[in-house]
Structure formats: C-alpha cells, structure tokens
From TrEMBL:
Name of the protein in its database record: 1-deoxy-D-xylulose-5-phosphate synthase
Gene Ontology MF annotations: 1-deoxy-D-xylulose-5-phosphate synthase activity
Function (record text): Catalyzes the acyloin condensation reaction between C atoms 2 and 3 of pyruvate and glyceraldehyde 3-phosphate to yield 1-deoxy-D-xylulose-5-phosphate (DXP).
Positions of the Transketolase-like pyrimidine-binding domain: 282-446
Amino acid sequence: MDNLLKQINILDDLRQLKAEDLPQLAKELREFIINIVATKEGHLGASLGVVELTIALHYVFDTPKDLLIWDVGHQAYGHKILTGRKNTFESNRQLHGISGFPKRSESEYDTFGVGHSSTSISAALGMAIASQLKGEDKHHIAVIGDASIASGMAFEGLNHAGVTDANLLVVLNDNAIGIDPSVGALKQYLTNVKKGTQKQDNIFEALNFNYSGPIDGHDIPLLISELERLKTVKGPKFLHVITTKGKGLKKAEEDQVKYHAPGKFNALTGELIAKSNLSEPPKYQDVFGETIVELAEKNEKIIGITPAMPTGSSLKYMMEKFPSRAFDVGIAEQHAVTLAAGMATQGLIPFCNIYSTFLQRAYDQVIHDVALQNLPVIFCLDRAGLVGEDGATHHGVFDLAYLNCIPNLVVFAPRDAVALRNMMYTVQLGIDFPIAIRYPRGRGNLINWKQPFKAIEIGKGECLKQGKDVAILSIGTMAKNVEDAITNLGVSHYDMAFVKPLDEALLHKIFKTYQAVVTIEDGTIVGGFGSNILAFANSNGYKQHIEVLGIADKFIEHGSIHQLQQLQHLDSVSINHKIEHLLTFLNNS
Ligand SMILES: Cc1ncc(C[n+]2csc(CCOP(=O)(O)OP(=O)(O)O)c2C)c(N)n1
Ligand SMILES: CC(=O)[C@@H](O)[C@H](O)COP(=O)(O)O
Ligand SMILES: [Mg+2]
C-alpha cells in the first residue's frame, strides 16, 4: 500500500480515502508523531491515544466549517499534522516554530487557543450559540479528557449546555489518567460505567445530554458510524470513548506518566535517552518535594496540596510518605486554594503547590478566601518565569504583578535552592499572613541537603556584591544571571528577595548611595517588582536614573528558556551590555 500520510496535504485528501484504509493511516500517523517527538520532544502519550479519534472526527465532520475544539491541546499533534502542518511539525514547540497547542493564528482548523484545561465545553457552547443566532448550520465538537472534565469549569459548561438546544457534541476521551492517574469521585463513576457496574443514573443524561458509549476509541469503523449517527441527533450530545494513553508505543502504554512528555527517546524501542546527570543540581520542584517531606516529618500540621500535578510539583514524594496529609485534588485550582484556606482556619499549615500559570485560575480564591481573611496559606508557585517550549499559555510571568496588588500577601522569590528550603522552613515555624513563594522550572544550584535550615527574616533584602555607581536589584533566580553579568563591572548587586513587602530601609540606603538603579525580574514589567521600585522612588522623591528590566508587555511565544531570556534581554550577556551602556552614559553625563 502506498504511504497514505504522504498523500495527505489538506484535509480533503483524507476525505478521499476509503474508510477501510483509515487504520493504515492511523498507523502511519502514529509513527510520524513518534519519530518527530522522539528527537524534538514534546507531549507524546495524549496524541498517540487519540490518533483514531482524530482521523474519525475529521473524516466525518466538515472541518473547519464544523468547529472542533480540543481541550488542553496537548493531544492535538495528529490534528495539526492532518490539517496542513505535516511539513512544519518538525518545528513543533521550537523558537519561531509551530505551537505545541492549537492556536487560532496558526490555522483555521485551530478554532480555539488552548493550553490550560477544561475550557473546551464552554468555548464550543459559545460557538454553537453563535451559530444558532447567526442562523448557521454547523456542528460543534469539544474533545475533553477524563481529568479535564472533572474541573469546575467543565462542569459549568455542561450545566449550561444541558438547558440549551445548541448543536454541541462533547467527546469524552477517557483514558483514566491525566498527567498522573485521574482522581476523585467522577473518576470512580467513569470506571463503574466502563465496567457496567454503576448503580446511579447516567450523570450526563441527568444533565440533559444525549449520552452514548462507552465505545472503543481505537476502533475507527465504530467511531465513524457513531459520529455519523450523532451528526443527525439534535441538541447537546455526549460521546464517551475509551482510549489508551500512549497507544502504539509499548513503553508509553506501560509508563503513561513518564511518557506524557518524555523528553528524547529511541523511536523504535521507546527507550528514554538518559541525560547524564552527573552532579547536576536538583530541579526546583524536587527541592520543594524533598523539603516538604523533611519538614513534615517533624511538623505534623504540614499538609501538601496539588491540583493534578503530583509529579510535576514533586508533591508525590509527600503523597507516598504521608498519604493522609498530601492531596492531589485533580484539575481544580480554585478548590485547591479554598481547601487550603479552610485547613488554615483550623490551624493546619497548608503548602498549596500550584504552577504559577495555573494559579491564574484561582485569583479570586487567593484574594477572597485567603488574603482578605489573612489566612496563613503557603503558596508554592512552581514554573514561575519563562517556562520554555510550552510557550505563551504556560509562562509564569504574570504572578508578581497579579499578586503584587493583594493586601496581606507576602510575595517572595528565592534566589536559589537554599533560599527556597530556608523559606519553606521559616513559614512552617508559624506565620500570621499568607505567602507566595515563586520559583522557576528546571534546575538551580547544587545544595548540601545536610546544611541546617536558617530562618529568613520577612521583608529583608541582601547585598550580594558591593560595588559603586550602579545598584542592581534582582528578584528570585535572576540573581544568577546578574552575578554572571557583572563579574568585571564593579557595580553592586542586591537580592531584594521580597516583592512585597519591600525592604524600604535597604532601599533608602541604596537610593542614597548610587547614581543609578536597575531592577531585574523574570515577570512582566507592567505591575511587577520594578514598578514597585519606581513607585517607592517617586513617593520618596528620589531622582536617580532607574531602569526596569523584565518581560515586555506582550505574550511571549515558545522556545528554550535561554532563547526566550535572550529575546527579553534577561540573559547574562544582555544584562552585561545593558549595564556597560549605563556606565558609559553615567560617565558621560
Ligand atoms: C488549568 C490547568 N491545570 C493543569 C494543567 C496541566 N495539565 C495539562 S494536561 C493535564 C492532564 C489532562 O488529562 P486529561 O484531560 O485526562 O487528558 P489526557 O492527557 O489524558 O489526554 C494537566 C493536569 C493544565 N493544562 N491546565
Ligand atoms: C499540557 C500541560 O499543561 C502540561 O503537560 C505541561 O506541559 C507540564 O509542564 P511541565 O513540563 O513544566 O511539567
Ligand atoms: Mg485522560
């Protein structure tokens, strides 16, 4: 048989194929994804699991006229390849390459930009209502995973859709796992449905959806006939499909957590290509994960909470050691925050670990449930700053700005792994305010795990290097870039550590000493640390030259963290040039 995938450049080519050829196409598409992700990296298991579903959906529905909306979008590689991006797929997630998620500006087939989960039902319903109002005859299909449908937002969408007559099909891609195994009562319910042992009425029928399934999501003829049938059914419909995450690559099926996004691997065997980790510093997530266990051993009030990221946050170490005190609550950031608030009212010490970007989901809970009541919740915000290849949807660059304006909240960014450990130690000694501790993706510095903890004074900055003329004030791990940038420049460097409260005593000293001040943060310039320093200088009448370095007021695309830092002039070479120019300017003025 000819190579079928080779013949597909536009979707019409797919629709010309005979239905009996589609399993062969599925095989080729799977191999294509495996071969490229093996070397270029990215999300793997989810896309492998929906190869047949992807083909069937595009075969049956008239996309892009009919609107197909992927939830999260990490499973949409097959969709991208079939809809005109086969030849650019090599550039997936790389600087100036295509995005790892559906993106409206990239293709008319990408009907809705995604990356954060559980938005597909609301977005599809919005489109379906718009079609009705415009008198258009279209189908609207949301494809959502079993972990994503358990999120509050997905339920809000179902709740609304069930009282409309919108032409909406929700396809539940049930593989019983998110990044980590799915959790909660809904997971138990779906398992019972699959085993035929559920006693209760069908939840989705109870919400007025026309429910069908569960069906085998790898059986293309079955998928096609069911989708064809559902095309003729009016109103909200629900199709429950069962798939295997990682389907078609044995290793990925066997270790679905690891192969969610495995890094480089051997495309034939699936074997991971081990990175040499000889004396590599630990990842920040592991510094958090190991430290919380260490502290929890001595302090039984400590609780760990993660919304669906036990592996990514490394809270899994605590979940293994203290299962009754560490909770994976599923994709439920809002619930995670308010759960922590409730625990704090009862004297527990909740460490609520959320990726910086996903805390955006729970902004009101941070303000209304935590800060307003001044509850001592400890937010550990992982993946703060630029995260790299996940791109604009995932960069944790807004947190300093969005937390900055919340009363009572202390905002701290450790400059290294030791500072992260020491702050975690400090806060569990007892605080009477909420605190956000934000740290980046990736590795920091080598640490001596036996070094005794040292309490950190809240609101105190520190001079790291004494020089003259210019004071550089950094926040968090930008300290390292500054350190590398200024080795020969003779300027001063301060780790201000706290965005809030500012170390005003230290700032007065600095403004009385130096001709110019430069602030550096890996967060948005608008509303962040630098703007706090500008406001401080203004309200105290300091007239020094101040430069604010940080993330520009635009969405930052995908690329390696280093490439993106270069583009934002936050890498050590750019900082070095900046300070050299500033010194020249000061000397000439
Ligand atoms: C709001 C939000 N929280 C967390 C994540 C991180 N995340 C990405 S994929 C995923 C699991 C999704 O599981 P599921 O919906 O079952 O899809 P599958 O990977 O199984 O295809 C999670 C937790 C996210 N993208 N958005
Ligand atoms: C799609 C998604 O949201 C996650 O898979 C995310 O890519 C995880 O990021 P980390 O790789 O930083 O854990
Ligand atoms: Mg799943």
